[in-house]
Amino acid sequence: MIYYYTAKTMRDALSHLRDRLDHTGLLLSGLCAVHCVLSVVIVSALGLGGQFLLDPHIHEVGLALALAIGGISLGFGVLRHGRLGPLLIGAAGLALMAAAISVPHGTGEAALTVIGVALVALAHIRNLRPQT
Questions:
Q1: What distance lies between CA 62 and its chain's CA centroid?
Q2: What pLDDT is attached to residue 110?
Q3: How confident is the model at residue 44 (pLDDT cuts 50, 70, 90)?
Q4: I need a surface site. Which of 49, 54, 57, 114 has the fewest CB within 10 A?
């Protein structure tokens, strides 16, 4: 009886952690999209903040966080619900985000990043939803 209670508690805790990671991934995806769009607008329209907003380190750290959180939460999702769809959508989004780092700053980079982030966000949403 104690084993059952402990196993159930662990399952509940892991489920809560997976959900929190997906919610964190959604939040970071939204922040990334806002940063990307606003950076292009602010730097091109006002000529301000380019040294900070377009710093490659911001993008590298963001991609590293996206890879870590996406890999863990979407990977756990496959184990939980057995669907590969969210993982594949997320992987495509992460690949686009990684490709964006290799192009010069501007609309091309912004487009790759925003599309990639949108795919990662969609993957997290699908990962949170029960199978339909």
A1: 9
A2: 82
A3: low
A4: 57
What is the distance between the alpha carbons of residues 84 and 92, in angstroms, rounded to a whole number? 12
- Model pTM? 0.75
Under 8 Å between Cβ of 29 and 121:
yes
Domain ranges of the chain: 2-128
pLDDT recorded at residue 8: 73
Using the predicted structure, report yes or no on whether residue 119 has a pLDDT greater than 60: yes
